[in-house]
Specification:
40% helix; single chain; alpha+beta
């Protein structure tokens, strides 16, 4: 499975202990996402989640929920790292 550099950076940050957090808004607008306190694009998060590389901890409706790196995400990241090694 191929990863973009942006996706790999997110997975590397998760592996390194950074928090990827979904924040629900009280205004009825959609959620927003932060990685280590900085905003992260919805498209990046949904792409990783849709491919099973990250998983949301906890149930729906929580005002603040975190994502974790899945085994599939770890495998994809390992493959990406091997492809970058000369």
């Amino acid at each position: 499975m191929s990863l973009t550099n942006a996706e790999a950076r997110v997975l590397l940050a998760l592996r390194g202990g950074a928090d990827l957090v979904r924040h629900l808004r009280q205004t009825g607008r959609g959620p927003y996402y932060t990685l280590a306190g900085r905003r992260l694009g919805v498209v990046t998060v949904k792409g990783l989640e849709g491919r099973g590389l990250i998983a949301l901890e906890g149930g729906p409706g929580q005002a603040r929920a975190t994502y974790t790196l899945t085994e599939r995400g770890e495998a994809a990241l390992t493959g990406w790292e091997k492809g970058r090694t000369p």
